């Protein structure tokens, strides 16, 4: 198993859900963490907790991944002791709305495409050249079951995650001949702040998504990411689709009544 002691792991969207769970599991393994999100207070709380529990060193970055210039400037000026990123977890992302396409809110579309697709690309473009120069690294992109199966009302979100899937595949092909690995992790239902964000803070509607079934937890996903990252260097897990036992497809779920 690959040793993560003092490896530098950069996680976007580290302020909640899957990203925060990744921070925990990699901190426990002795990695140094660069934690990226817009909510600085959350990052500070997580950084403090991980320091207390695991003596984890973290470098916190308040950043909106949609801001192309800021992404480039931030990663071009990482402190020298933080710039050799070993693992990049492109996790920042969101869904907005579940409207029929012809009734969709165009601002919601812009936000999803700008974050899930363009933001992921900006971060990747900033950090992967260093990995290539060092001939070392692993990029983990968080896709979704939504990138495999489009569901009613999913339209633009599903399209953004299908794009992530293609981008992961393209990146893997373009890195062939280097030692760098690319993994796409594609979860089904995970209970995080995801549905709160999708429904613009409508908690009742968000809770209904997970009602009477057992969803995946953020930690379930973090464990799988950790497994992929810690395989021996010659093993690249290209793609993993994970669903709760209560979910068969994007729309076919079993709810206990
Ligand atoms: P959460 O809403 O709990 O977490 C999303 C994270 O992304 C937050 O830390 C948020 O931080 C960050 N983020 C969002 N927009 C930006 C931005 N513009 N710049 C920087 N950070 C941003 O949801 P999840 O943990 O569930 O989501 C993580 C990923 O997993 C997403 O890509 C999502 O699409 C994917 N996914 C989720 C599934 C689920 O069922 N939950 C299933 C399949 C995939 P902040 O607001 O502080 O910036
Ligand atoms: C999140 C999974 O199917 O709820 O990407 O959109 S889904």
Automatic annotation (TrEMBL):
SUPFAM superfamilies cross-referenced by the UniProt entry: NAD(P)-binding Rossmann-fold domains (SSF51735)
UniProt superkingdom: Bacteria
Keywords from the UniProt entry: Oxidoreductase
GO MF terms held by the record: oxidoreductase activity, acting on the CH-OH group of donors, NAD or NADP as acceptor
Pfam family for this entry, one: adh_short
Similarity section: Belongs to the short-chain dehydrogenases/reductases (SDR) family.
Protein name: NAD(P)-dependent oxidoreductase
């Amino acid at each position: 198993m690959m040793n993560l002691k003092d490896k530098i792991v950069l996680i976007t969207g580290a302020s909640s859900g899957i990203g925060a769970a990744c921070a925990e599991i990699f901190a426990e393994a002795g990695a140094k963490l660069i934690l990226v999100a817009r909510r600085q207070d959350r990052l500070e709380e997580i950084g403090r907790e991980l320091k207390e529990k695991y003596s984890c060193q973290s470098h916190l970055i308040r950043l909106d991944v949609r801001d192309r210039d800021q992404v480039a400037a931030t990663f071009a000026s990482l402190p020298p002791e933080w710039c050799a990123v070993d693992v990049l977890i492109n996790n920042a992302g969101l869904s907005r709305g579940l409207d029929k396409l012809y009734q969709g809110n165009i601002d919601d579309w812009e936000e999803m495409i700008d974050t899930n697709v363009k933001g992921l690309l900006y971060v990747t473009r900033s950090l992967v050249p260093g990995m290539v120069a060092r001939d070392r690294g692993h990029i983990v992109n968080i896709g979704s079951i939504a990138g495999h199966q489009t569901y009613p009302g999913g339209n633009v979100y599903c399209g953004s995650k299908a794009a992530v899937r293609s981008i992961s595949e393209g990146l893997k092909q373009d890195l062939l001949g280097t030692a760098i690995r690319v993994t796409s992790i594609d979860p089904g239902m995970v209970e995080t702040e995801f549905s709160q964000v999708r429904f613009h803070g409508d908690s009742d509607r968000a809770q209904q998504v997970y009602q009477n079934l057992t969803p995946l937890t953020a930690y379930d996903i973090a464990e799988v990411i950790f497994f992929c990252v810690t395989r021996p260097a010659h093993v690249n897990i290209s793609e993993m689709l994970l669903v709760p036992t209560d979910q068969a497809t994007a729309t076919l779920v079993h709810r206990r009544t």
